[in-house]
Amino acid sequence: MKMRKPIAAALTAWLAVAALAACSTGGDAEGGGDETADEGQVITQAPVEGATPLELWTFVELHGTYYTTMADKWNELNPDKKVQINVNVLPYDDMHNKLQIALTSGEGAPDIADIEAGKFPQFVTGTPALMDLTEAAAPYVDDIVKARLDLFSKDGALYGMDFHVGATVAFYNTELLEAAGIDYTTIKTWDDYSAAGAAYYDATGKYFGTVDTSASWQEGLLLAQLGGEYFTEDGKVNVDSPELTQAMEILKGLQDANAAAVPPGGQPDTEEAFGAYNNGDFAAAVMPFWFTSRYLAYMPDSAGKIAIAPPPTVDNPVVVSVGGGGTGTAVVKDGPNAELAAEFVAWAKLSYEGNVETWNLLGFDPLNTTVWEDEAITHNPDNKFVQYFKNNPFDALLEIKDSIGNLTSYSNSAMPSVNNLLNTETQNSIFEDGMPISDALAQAQADLENELGQ
Fold this sequence. Notes:
By secondary structure, the chain is an alpha/beta fold. The chain has helices spanning about 60-75, 90-105, 120-125, 135, 145-150, 175-180, 190-205, 215-225, 240-255, 270-280, 290-300, 340-350, 350-360, 375-380, 385-390, 395-400, 415-430, 435-450, and strands at about 40-45, 50-60, 85-90, 110-115, 155, 155-160, 170-175, 210, 260, 285-290, 305-310, 320, 325-330, 405. The strands form five sheets. It has a five-stranded mixed sheet, sandwiched between helices. The protein has a three-stranded antiparallel sheet with strand order 10-7-11. Strands 5-6 form a two-stranded antiparallel sheet. Helix 8 (about 215-225) packs across helix 9 (about 240-255) and helix 17 (about 415-430) runs antiparallel to helix 18.
């Protein structure tokens, strides 16, 4: 089988989000993101004389800091077209709902907006109110992972620019594992992961990893490894497929072996789960690379203990990893300064300078692949992410670089409906209520066909 939208071809030049960095707690690339925001916070760049004001909406506090930092750098390089970035940080659902209303009514929209990947399809249905950014991105695309541009494209037009690849990796608390006699470097497959998890539970009475009910990070990884999608090639919902059934069986097997359990909050990227990890209740997390930011923000006492490794795989995987999460930064088409906003966003998100700051400030795996081969950046001993993790964060990325895929389903306009049902009902039915997997997926298939009119 062929990998879905492989990143491999785009990574030949080898050298990434949520409370705090690129997409939002309580969800994922199928509908939630990689970060969260304080309600109603305003982040304003220091006054810049003669600058064009640009209003920006985001659901991630650290994104606001990133944009104002990049605006200062932009102004130094472009004294003839300075920008003044005024950021409104809103709660995840509130921001997306408010933006949808503003675009539909034609009133009150910002110049620039972050739109989480799981929400993005609903903003490009029909005739998008968002600007085509293809021309603005053109100077940078040769160094950008194409699959992450495709995620925010429609009919050949680019409507959003991501922060990261979001490659799924495994995070291991080596201090906890070593005390239980477990070597994380021997974990290659999901069978290895299950065996290590069962041994860890026997030794400690605590769980190794998680099975998630409110997000689909591991589920999406397994689906990609098995060569599946949430939709058929002609766009019909396909959640009772053999591949998704097998993915759920693997995860249920972890739970049955006491190798994993549902974490507080239903997934690792929640405030409740951060507390559980801090308490040592879990020793591993299989998450997109942007989860690095959560460790620094919410688990500071684990500094020097967390190693990053390739994710466990099935036998003969179609791909080893998959991009998870994402935030497409978009420009409102009818904004009074849309051209300048597009030029600034493209530079901030896709340029070499922007991607260096993506790593330095946010801890993401950058879209601009030339950054990956610059050890002065990736191994900088003063970098807070390099300092925090037990091994270099880029070691795992370089190991899996030729086999990172992307589920094309994320671009389907019906993906938010699929994501919502799976992450609020189906996974709870399987992992909390004990419903047989075939029954739960058959019910999900019927419900979605009814909702979507298929």
